[in-house]
């Protein structure tokens, strides 16, 4: 089978994007792992698949696969690339694009300055929605990891996130704690682990160890979850600049039961065809 693809990136979080509207795309986990491999394949953190709509009042369905082959519910940097892709490929001529995901509908807005703004929906905080094993909902939880008690926030942006506060993001033990948190038995569907340094009430630094990938240069939903957790802890304002190793995002969230907005870039790197 020969497949046309586009390589894209949002803040260095990189994607292989397939148009599953105009060509049949049938991906199994082994094929995804092979395509995502940086030596034997094209290389990416996630594969994004554009499909015809499944949910009412949406124009497309957006599917996301991690480099380890697992299908996941949401991807923020991918959502911005998805918007740029459907416009550049002529699949849509709209500036506002409603899209269905496994986590529900989101809305993508192509801005005049080239940035993409995404209505990411309302963050989910109850343990069952994340999913996270806890007696009741709380702003922070104690999590035992390798003999240490960590204080984490737990947030779902459609996909699960644990958020830790650190003094200095550069020296944060992302490589040591990331995999242990990702696989922690209290997160039955595994989890993305964010390490957040608060600079001011309007600016944070963040590194994310992503479920199914490892540390990436940026995680859009991780940035959303960090701002939600920081705001619930009373440490952040409603509009926050998030500096990630690959660049910056702006996150806006007024508070509980409000929708969250993410704004940032989306870039095409190259196009190709693979057997
Ligand atoms: N890079 C993404 C998140 C991709 C999915 C994540 N690894 C998961 O398993 O939930 C983003 O930009 O949000």
From TrEMBL:
Keyword Amino-acid biosynthesis: yes
Catalytic activities: (2S,6S)-2,6-diaminopimelate = meso-2,6-diaminopimelate
GO BP term, example: lysine biosynthetic process via diaminopimelate
Active-site annotation: 75, 219
Pfam families named in the record: DAP_epimerase (PF01678)
Compartment list: Cytoplasm
Enzyme Commission no: 5.1.1.7
Binding site for substrate: 13, 46, 66, 76-77, 159, 192, 210-211, 220-221
Domain of life: Bacteria
GO terms of molecular function: diaminopimelate epimerase activity
InterPro entries: DAP_epimerase_AS, DAP_epimerase_DapF
Task of the protein: Catalyzes the stereoinversion of LL-2,6-diaminopimelate (L,L-DAP) to meso-diaminopimelate (meso-DAP), a precursor of L-lysine and an essential component of the bacterial peptidoglycan.
Name of the molecule in the record: Diaminopimelate epimerase
Protein source organism: Thiobaca trueperi
């Amino acid at each position: 089978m020969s497949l046309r693809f586009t390589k894209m990136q949002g803040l260095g979080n990189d994607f292989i994007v397939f148009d599953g509207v105009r060509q049949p795309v049938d991906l199994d986990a082994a094929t995804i792992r092979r395509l995502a491999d940086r030596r034997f394949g094209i290389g990416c953190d996630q594969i994004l698949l554009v499909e015809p709509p499944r949910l009412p009042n949406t124009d497309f369905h957006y599917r996301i696969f991690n480099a380890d082959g697992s299908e996941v519910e949401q991807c923020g940097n991918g959502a911005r690339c998805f918007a740029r892709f459907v416009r550049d490929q002529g699949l849509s001529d709209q500036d506002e694009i409603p899209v269905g995901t496994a986590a529900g509908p989101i809305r993508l807005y192509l801005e005049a300055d080239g940035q993409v703004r995404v209505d990411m929906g309302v963050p989910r905080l109850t343990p069952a929605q994340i999913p996270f094993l806890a007696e009741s909902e709380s702003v922070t939880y104690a999590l035992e990891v390798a003999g240490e008690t960590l204080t984490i926030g737990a947030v779902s942006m459609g996909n699960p996130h644990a958020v830790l506060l650190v003094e200095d993001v550069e020296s944060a033990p992302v490589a040591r704690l990331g995999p242990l948190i990702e696989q922690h038995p209290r997160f039955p569907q595994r989890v993305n682990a964010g390490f957040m340094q608060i600079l001011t009430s309007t600016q944070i630094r963040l590194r994310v160890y992503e479920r199914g990938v490892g540390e990436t240069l940026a995680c859009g939903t991780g940035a959303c979850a960090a701002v939600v957790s920081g705001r619930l802890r009373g440490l952040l304002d409603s509009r926050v600049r998030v500096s990630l190793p690959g660049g910056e995002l702006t996150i806006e969230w007024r508070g509980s039961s409000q929708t969250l907005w993410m704004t940032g870039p989306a870039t095409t790197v190259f196009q190709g065809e693979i057997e």
